[in-house]
Design goal:
The protein has one helix spanning 2-17, and strands at residues 41-44, 52-57, 63-67, 72-77, 82-89, 98-104, 107-112, 117-121, 128-129, 132-134, 144-150, 155-160, 171-178, 183-184, 190-193, 210-213, 220-224, 229-233, 239-244, 253-258, 264-268, 276-280. It is mainly β.
Length: 284
């Protein structure tokens, strides 16, 4: 009887020592696209938007984009690259270092590299539109390069190319801007440890330039022009997989979006030449 009591007393301790089951691996959606290969449909953009810096797909399946120096938004027919319409912030288009674009709740947002967000409704062709500005604590030192709408949290995600903040060395940061409170969270939503990003194809340090949430999986695709690579983050920000971007097809990828049929689109700054859209259909 004495031995039985000893065994029973040990059982709770033994249960506590059991290892927790390992988290299930996240299925990769990035693996469905061959961005490292040459098999992409490439569409050239007009010279007017050769310096295309960001793209976004609207809820009704239209592609909006912008260049990186003036507050002018263009609607592009992504099947042929033609401009369907354009409208400006203010009468002449605000001058700023615009880096990416997002759409949420019927409004359009542009992010500048100094962390300022511009909010405005979509306008008709040739019109100008009034806008609101939201200044954040991010600056040009952080160099905001990416912006996307995160529907589950009703927020915008701001992707920093450079400094992640004083306490986050050797990482890249993604901050969340609440659309409810119109304020930026003081700590990053996600941190990408540079040690988890493998050596990039062009031997450059990973410096991201665009972000988009995959409509089906809810994972996040982060593109780096400086590094010619793309990584996929899980819903909680863990690095799932990485893939090199073919530089001959995408010499300077600055934006990313998904069509309604889940085709992945990368936009390339023309660097003085014509910008391009590169489209990758998912593997079946």
């Amino acid at each position: 009887m004495k031995y039985a009591l000893v065994i029973l007393c040990l059982l709770p301790a033994m249960c506590l020592c059991q290892k927790k089951p390992a988290p299930k691996p996240v299925a990769s959606m990035l693996s469905s696209y061959d961005v490292s290969g040459k098999d992409a449909r490439v569409v050239k953009l007009p010279h007017l938007i050769s310096e295309v810096s960001g793209i976004v797909m609207t809820e009704d399946g239209r592609l909006l984009c912008h260049d990186d120096e003036r507050g002018v938004v263009y609607q592009i027919d992504y099947t042929n690259g033609e401009i369907s319409k354009s409208f400006s912030l203010g009468n002449f288009g605000v001058k700023e270092d615009f880096e990416d674009i997002a759409v949420a709740g019927g409004l359009v947002y542009l992010a500048a590299s100094n962390g300022v967000l511009f909010e405005f409704p979509e306008a008709e062709n040739g019109r100008s539109v009034e806008f609101k500005m939201y200044k954040t604590f991010l600056t040009s030192r952080n160099d905001v390069e990416g912006l996307c709408f995160d529907a589950p949290t009703k927020s915008l995600l701001l992707l920093c190319k450079e400094s992640p903040g004083k306490s986050y060395h050797n990482q890249r940061a993604i901050y969340a801007f609440s659309l409810r409170t119109k304020s930026l969270a003081t700590t990053p939503r996600f941190l990408i440890p540079l040690k988890q990003v493998t050596q990039t194809s062009d031997k450059h340090e990973f410096k991201p330039s665009a972000i988009a949430r995959h409509p089906k999986s809810g994972t996040y695709f982060v593109v780096a022009a400086h590094g010619s690579t793309i990584i996929e983050l899980s819903a909680d920000g863990a690095v799932v997989v990485q893939q090199s971007i073919n530089r001959k097809v995408n010499p300077h990828p600055e934006g990313i979006a998904f069509t309604p049929d889940l085709t992945l689109i990368l936009c390339n700054d023309g660097q003085g030449e014509r910008g391009t859209l590169s489209m990758y259909a998912p593997k079946k």
